[in-house]
């Protein structure tokens, strides 16, 4: 009986330590940029706002449909990341692509572009347009600290090739290479952890 009485405090301490460990956040943010409020149009002609996206984390990329350099590998890489997410049963997220050439990238053009890739679950993808060139150039710098620039007489647009992770609260918390040496497994783990932390 005395042994049992001595064990009770030890068990209580062990239980408290375990609960403290489990309540610790497993995702560590590297940045803390607040995404500016917006309402744009996706590839299905649906309005998508910052408020609509809040509550789930989202992966971000900047693309345009006539891109001949970084956009195709970026989109293929994001599709592979989604396959890994699907294989792990991770569902509570979105993938958001902002067009950097909105005059050309109509909803129909964005929808056609996405069809070129083997996307495991298209319902999670929001390719956004419905803003001016000036708006996207300002929005990309203000919200994501990344450059977008369309030069006169050129059908190609200068833009960043990073993927970014946005939290459930609408803050950019981490960025990753989107073209080469893409840390796909790290992105999956980060997304899994940020979802778990938000529960």
UniProtKB/TrEMBL annotation:
Organism: Kurthia zopfii
Similarity-based family: Belongs to the SCO1/2 family.
Span of domain Thioredoxin: 29-196
Keywords associated with the record: Copper, Disulfide bond, Metal-binding, Signal
Gene3D superfamilies from the UniProt entry: Glutaredoxin
Binding, Cu cation: 67, 71, 159
Top-level taxon of origin: Bacteria
Pfam families (alphabetical): SCO1-SenC
Signal peptide range in chain numbering: 1-24
GO MF, one annotated term: metal ion binding
Disulphide bridges: 67-71
Protein name from the UniProt record: BsSco
InterPro entries linked to this entry: SCO1/SenC (IPR003782), Thioredoxin-like_sf (IPR036249), Thioredoxin_domain (IPR013766)
